[in-house]
Specification:
By secondary structure, this protein is of the alpha/beta class. It has helices at residues 17-29, 48-59, 71-79, 95-103, 118-124, 145-153, 172-180, 191-201, 215-223, 237-250, and strands at 10-13, 33-36, 40-44, 65-68, 89-92, 133-139, 156-167, 185-188, 209-212, 230-231. The longest helix is centred in the last third of the chain and has 14 residues, at 237-250. The chain is elongated, with a radius of gyration of 19 Å. It starts with 9 loop residues before the first strand and ends with a helix.
Length: 251
């Protein structure tokens, strides 16, 4: 029986929950030893009244579109019992977010086909559907790409903070394993994760492989001072692990 491509590789998984469990299961199938060490978590917005007002206007049919950029935003909508009226269309930044929407019982009217990012969503937005008001509920540290891009297209854009992204300190054991090189690779799933890696664990050993979930995250990782060895073609966990496997097989 041939050895699996990541046999013996300890891989840091920077998010917990269902996502972390799913990624860990996939890593085990290719021989890796996942080390779940959440570097970020999500907290309630510091301005709940602004969020409540925006969601009231949404349910009242005052928005033509709502744009969803993460599964965490979907969690916020469901926790608030938010109903999106039939007159409001829903855009998802990518397949992962669209799947979270569908699982929560929301329909999805538009997903960018080739670039699952805020930039791709703006670039691929159908010209026939540029009209009216759009609601963008995002993290407190979301980059302005989406708001600026849709405003430039001609939408009346309203941004509201749906949740806060906060850093989570790693345990001393994990920090020691990273510093010693026992952890062979780290997965970078967002700019927030990249910045926490840089703040808490840099400089990484020269042999540590940094694998980023897409070009935008790779850009953010480099901006945070991290080296980048692997970039997934698609912004999905499966694509990220496939890219890491390809790297290991060609190393």
């Amino acid at each position: 029986m041939s050895e699996k491509p990541l046999t013996g590789w300890r891989v840091l998984v920077p998010r917990g929950g269902k996502w972390g469990d799913g990624v860990s299961a996939t890593l085990r199938r290719v021989g890796a030893i996942p080390v779940i060490a959440p570097l970020i978590n999500f907290a309630s917005t510091e301005d709940p009244s602004a969020l409540s007002n925006a969601l009231f206007e949404l349910q009242d049919g005052q928005f033509d579109w709502i744009v969803i950029t993460s599964a965490t935003t979907v969690d916020v909508l469901t926790s608030q019992g938010t109903r999106v009226p039939d007159t409001t269309r829903i855009a998802a930044v990518g397949e992962t977010t669209a799947a979270a929407l569908a699982l929560a019982g929301y329909r999805v009217d538009f997903i960018p086909a080739s670039d699952n990012s805020a930039r791709g969503l703006v670039k691929e937005w159908p010209a026939s559907d540029i009209r009216g008001r759009v609601l963008i509920p995002q993290s407190d540290i979301a980059e302005p790409t989406l708001v600026a891009g849709l405003s430039k297209l001609g939408f009346a854009v309203e941004f509201v903070t749906a949740y806060r992204t906060v850093g989570v300190p790693v345990t001393p054991d994990v920090a020691a394993d990273v510093a010693s090189g026992r952890i062979r690779a780290v997965l970078v799933t967002s700019g927030s994760v990249a910045r926490q890696l840089a703040t808490q664990l840099a400089p990484l050993p020269d042999d540590t492989v940094v694998a980023c979930i897409g070009p935008r995250t790779a850009f953010d990782a480099r901006a945070a001072g991290l080296p980048v060895h692997v970039i997934a073609e698609e912004r999905s966990a499966d694509s990220l692990i496939e890219a890491l496997v390809d790297y290991a097989e060609n190393e």
